[in-house]
Specification:
- The protein is α/β, with parallel strands linked by helices.
- It is 47% helix and 12% strand.
- It is built from 28 helices and 27 strands.
- Strands 5-4-3-6-7-8-9 form a seven-stranded parallel sheet, sandwiched between helices. Strands 12-11-10-13-14-15 form a six-stranded parallel sheet, with helices on both faces.
- Strand 26 and strand 27 form a beta hairpin.
- It is elongated.
């Protein structure tokens, strides 16, 4: 940072070696505290350092976008993994000197905001991360995300000494990389004028402001009002701020309404004003200037920052707060009053005491306001530039591993969150419907046991990993299991497959593949479901359907049955009848491979058609359980060949197309590429990894999964993050925009496999 003068002789601060800074975070007019902070910080930096080129990358949540000002040059949809890679490319191409990250878990997509790391890993410039939330007891995923963020950042900015201490004790971060910079505050107008303008002349004013949500504890201030009003009838309590958008989206205005009802019931509705809107700094400053007492009665003791409290302290106001972390630090040394959480009586006592004693109230405000100079945005901007400059210098001295341009197929993408929304849309009281027109279920196509078995597999996977709400999973799982059970025809010992929307079966027995797939799902229910009733029904159906398996001639039906048997034997190892059938089917599949395969065609059949990798997977899984290395070798060799012939010239997965498949000695059909194929490859590669512990299999699995996210030769994502569904295929020039059950559940299964890739298998 340098100081010089312009042509008129005025003092001008320049940014030294830093020419361009990018800010990553939320931005106004999006309504949230991070948006206000990012806006104020970037504006202060631009004002204090006019020669600096600074701009913003704004995070967008679901719903309509925002009308951003020109300072926002790039927008990211939080749940779109591809957007983070595009943003990284944008920053690298624009030769940014420093990236300032405003970090809060909830503003980025992925589990605990993990998508942010997808962007940050790719950057070539130093990163300075401002940590708005630092948890004393993070869960495993939150800990992992914060751990990597602290390691990838050149400097870390905290707004409290308590935050710095937590970084050290919880994440082992050295003090040498931590910069303390206070939360910035605006300048305020004169108090008297503000009361007049707001129509509060002669009133004692209590103020709580910021986005409203149930953890703000406002009801306890309202409960304190009757005692306060009895002593000071002129008091007015202002609740200033809109309901938090996420709270409003999920619960509407129920919390605010409950506060208004409480005020009427207590007879203090004439002493309280709800200003239900998001206010900009200038209007907020008017209310702050008019306030006699500011109250932050928050209910989250771990809260490490608060813009509202920073503004109130900087405004030189008497502050009453509950003992959350930021408040205990900011209000130390008699700069404010701490009251217990959820204690209306204590709030009443302290408010009355301050309104009774002007000298004490003004003294508290004066001691609080003494820290204001260091908190004004110009001073904060200079402190940030010091941090940016230090990060830039350190980065130049200690370069990260040299950036190597990567193909799309090699670049890691964050895993999307589990989203069952579209699966729920496709599911009715009978089961999951087969097809959709765009995103709308097609009733005329009816149901099939194939898709309900796939959906049942997904539900047991979710139940086993605990990655969704148990009650929801149980409801869906029971529906799919009921459908599979209803599809079993005791007269034939086989499963029916197709059912019309009017609940009429179209056949006495379905395909061999559908029988094997249903058996696989039932075996998984037996081996992994937590509901004893579901396990008992699954076992009954499994044993009823097992005898017909010996007569099946389809190698894919054998493969599905083998995978189901493997799952069943997780729970009932030692069942000699089932173990004998596994041995017979696995040897039959191996013999087929040995008869057909050759040096240039290491495959099971004279053609490679659909769900090919399940054949390899079945041999790998069975060989591992049986200790048969020949089966494992055949499975991994055939899978290696399958990966080779399904790798495009760009290095992407290119599943064998359904328009012609691949005949021995022929040419591979390029399109249409089906999601079910990518799913089978993910599963087979992870099975190979578990059998061999060779990490290259996980790389192949990741490349196959990334096909769903747009790492294919058309660079078109098949997964639709807005619905949770998956498009039905990739044509030569476009994606199939229908989102049916097979493709959607195939994506969910692949995602679940990837998310649990590191979990040990029993």
């Amino acid at each position: 940072m340098c100081v010089d003068s312009d042509s008129t002789g005025r003092r001008r601060i320049t940014a030294g070696p830093i020419q361009r800074v990018a800010f990553l975070g939320n931005y106004l007019p999006r309504q949230c505290g991070i948006a206000t902070f990012t806006t104020d910080l970037s504006t202060a930096i631009a004002t204090e350092f006019p020669t600096l080129d600074s701009f913003v990358l704004a995070m967008n949540d679901s719903g309509p976008g925002h009308a951003y000002p020109p300072r926002v040059r790039f927008e990211l949809a939080a749940e779109d993994p591809q957007a983070y890679l595009r943003a990284a490319d944008f920053l690298n191409v624009n030769t940014v000197d420093v990236v300032s990250v405003q970090h809060e878990y909830g503003i980025f997509g992925g589990e605990s905001g993990s998508h942010a790391l997808t962007l940050l890993r790719e950057l070539r410039m130093p990163i300075v991360s401002t940590l708005h939330t630092i948890l004393s007891n993070p869960n495993a995923q939150q800990h992992q995300v914060m751990q990597e963020l602290t390691e990838i950042s050149e400097r870390l900015v905290v707004m409290s000494t308590e935050g710095a201490a937590l970084l050290g004790s919880v994440h082992g971060v050295s003090e040498s990389v931590i910069d303390f910079v206070p939360h910035g505050i605006p300048s305020l107008p004169a108090a008297g004028l503000s009361k007049d303008r707001l129509g509060l002349e002669g009133r004692s004013v209590m103020l709580t402001f910021g986005l409203i949500s149930p953890d703000k504890g406002i009801e306890y201030v309202i409960q304190a009002l009757p005692a306060i009003v009895k002593r000071h009838p002129d008091v007015m309590y202002i609740v200033l701020g809109a309901t938090h958008p996420h709270v409003r989206a999920e619960h509407g205005e129920s919390y605010r309404l409950s506060l208004e009802i409480l005020a009427r019931e207590l007879g203090v509705d004439e002493n309280i004003i709800f200003h239900n809107r998001f206010v900009a700094d200038r209007e907020l400053a008017e209310f702050l200037a008019a306030a006699d007492i500011c109250i932050t009665p928050y209910l989250q003791p771990s809260q490490i920052t608060s813009g509202a409290l920073a503004y109130a302290v900087g405004a030189g106001k008497a502050v009453i707060a509950t003992p959350y972390r930021y408040a205990t630090e900011m209000l130390a040394d008699d700069r404010g009053i701490i009251v217990p959480m959820r204690d209306a009586g204590a709030i009443a006592d302290q408010v009355i005491g301050l309104l009774d004693d002007d000298e004490r109230r003004l003294g508290l405000g004066a001691r609080a306001g003494a820290v204001a100079d260091d908190m004004r945005w110009p001073a904060v901007a200079r402190r940030y530039m010091d941090s940016f400059t230090l990060a830039h210098t350190q980065h130049a001295e200690r370069k990260r591993t040299a950036f190597v341009a990567k193909t799309l197929a090699e670049r890691p993408l964050g895993l999307p969150d589990l989203n069952l929304e579209h699966l729920r849309v496709l599911t009715d009281d009978t089961g999951v419907l087969q097809h959709a027109r765009y995103t709308v279920p097609r009733y005329d196509a009816g149901y099939c046991v194939d898709d309900n078995a796939r959906a049942l597999l997904a539900m047991t996977f979710i139940e086993d990993t605990g990655s969704a709400e148990r009650s929801e999973v149980r409801g869906l799982s029971s529906r799919y299991l009921a459908f599979v059970g209803h599809s079993f025809n005791e007269d034939t010992g086989r499963f029916r497959n197709f059912m019309s929307y009017t609940r009429e079966w179209s056949e006495a027995s379905g395909s061999e593949d559908s029988h094997g797939r249903a058996l696989w799902a039932l075996g998984r229910v037996v081996g992994r479901a937590r509901d004893p009733g579901a396990r008992s029904l699954g076992a009954d159906l499994f044993h009823l359907a097992l005898p017909a398996t010996s007569a099946l001639t389809s190698p894919r039906a054998w493969a599905y049955a083998l995978l189901g048997i493997d799952e069943y034997l997780r729970a009932f190892a030692g069942d000699r009848e089932v173990e004998a059938l596994r041995k017979a089917l696995a040897e039959r599949l191996l013999l087929m491979y040995e008869k057909v395969s050759g040096h240039d065609w290491p495959w099971f059949e004279e053609s490679a058609t659909y769900c090919n990798a399940r054949l390899s997977q079945a041999l790998i899984v069975s060989g591992k359980r049986m200790g048969n290395q020949k089966m494992i070798a055949a499975g991994t060799t055939s899978l290696t060949w399958l990966l080779d012939i399904q790798r495009s010239t760009l290095g992407n997965l290119a599943p064998i197309g359904s328009n012609g498949f691949l005949e021995r000695g022929g040419t591979t059909a390029t399109f249409d590429q089906q999601p079910v194929e990518a799913c089978t490859i993910v599963s087979a590669c992870l099975a190979a990894y578990r059998a061999t512990r060779d990490p290259h299999w996980t790389k192949h699995a990741r490349r196959a999964f990334n096909w769903f996210l747009g790492q294919n030769d058309l660079h078109i994502p098949l997964y639709d993050a807005t619905t949770g569904g998956c498009r039905d295929g990739l044509h030569a020039d476009r994606a199939n925009e229908n989102q049916g059950a097979e493709s959607t559940v195939s994506f969910l299964l692949a995602l679940l496999e990837m998310r649990s890739a590191d979990r040990p298998e029993a």
